[in-house]
Amino acid sequence: MTRPDDPFERRPDPAGDDGRDWGYGDWDEPARERSPGHGDAARDRDPDVAPDGRGGADPRGGADPRGGADGAASDRAATDGAVDDAASADDHVGADASADDDRPARSTRDATPRPVYVRRRITAVAVAVLLVLGVPVALALGGGDDATSADGPPLLQGPLATAGSLTVDRLERDAAITRFAKLGLPVYCGAGKQPWVALTFDDGPHALSSRFRELLVRERAAVTLFRQGTNIGGHEAEVVAQRDLGWDSGSHTQNHPALASLDAKAQRTEIEAGNRASRGALGRPVRLFRPPYESHDDDTDRIVKDLGMVQVLWNVDTQDALGVSKDRIVEQAKAGLHPGSIILMHETKERTLEALPAIFAEMRRRGLQPVTVSQMLAHDPPSEAQLRKGFDGCLVDVTPGKASS
């Protein structure tokens, strides 16, 4: 059995070494052999010959550019001669073909593309795929701090590299959320193997949201926001601005009830209504969920899992929702600033806004970086054993007294 031609195998170039680079080299079109019924030879040889065999008119109008009436007559004579030659050639080829019908027809060019052409085609397709897949995702996610830049060869640097990196990052984070959603266990913290902390803010959007956003952008902080459905109306533009920074978006129910005090049907109604409100503003579904007051039971866990979401709790509570002072918020946060911590704060508290600069200063001193929850799940995920231990599976547990979510 003969081996089929390999389109990537380099064939000897009859023209010599002139075509060894990435150009086409001296690729002269080979002389074509006529076959019966191929059409008019004059049309094959001269692009200016119209379908009826006459010379084509100058598209710009006016006189024939090749020399007036004498030139036209000369061209007609040349064309007529070419047609006669072609007819004679057709008769000759037809006779040869009838004499040897079992001979395979010869094509006008080798059907196997040259390696240079194949490489160029593959490169073009690869670039097109990156543009099609990467750029829309980059536009959708925006340029948040969690959008890592890519290092690569000069050809793939700049917007194209960023778009490709954002696409990969988003796919990895979505895959991680899917894995944890299937487990159906609440997440309290990350593994703690990376110098990362997830700062999370509940109960927005709010009149203070734009000030939180401006401060977080100055600090180059990627965060996760759990929004209450009834607060979204009238703040849709703020939700979009936060989304476009690449931050994580989660749902915090519609009306902020203690879910464990409700029956399963009422719980589902609350959760789904909050999801719809968030989706309406974001233009895409939310896949992270946080129960108010840390109140959840088996019904809550089952509903969240059925909806393909991950229930995100925390291992550090700053107690800001209980009205404590700015210094107390900072103190609580500092106690929990360890790798893998998920820190609970609120987007609705002036004192939290005032405490954030001191919290970020301490993070820098300790070499800790703020990341989103989905980044932590993708690149520093807790083990299933950690999840089953709850707060005890985390490096630290700073959750004193009543939950303030």
What can you tell me about this protein's structure?
This protein has 405 residues and is an alpha/beta fold. Among the domains are: 116-170, no CATH class; 185-393, Alpha-Beta Barrel (TIM Barrel). The protein is 43% helix and 8% strand. The protein contains 12 helices and 8 strands. It has helices at residues 41-45, 68-99, 115-141, 159-183, 209-218, 236-243, 264-282, 298-306, 326-336, 350-366, 373-379, 384-389, and strands at residues 196-204, 224-227, 248-251, 288-289, 310-311, 316-317, 342-346, 369-371. Strands 1, 2, 3, 4, 5, 6, 7 and 8 form an 8-stranded parallel sheet that branches. β6, α9 and β7 form a beta-alpha-beta unit. α9 (326-336) packs parallel to α10. The model is unreliable at 1-118 and 135-156 (pLDDT under 50).
Topology record:
Layout: H1 41-45, H2 68-99, H3 115-141, H4 159-183, E1 196-204, H5 209-218, E2 224-227, H6 236-243, E3 248-251, H7 264-282, E4 288-289, H8 298-306, E5 310-311, E6 316-317, H9 326-336, E7 342-346, H10 350-366, E8 369-371, H11 373-379, H12 384-389
Parallel strand pairs: 1-2, 1-7, 1-8, 2-3, 3-4, 4-5, 6-7
Helix pairs in contact: 3-4, 4-11, 7-8, 9-10
For this entry, give a set of tags.
405 residues; alpha/beta; TIM Barrel; eight-stranded parallel β-sheet; disordered N terminus
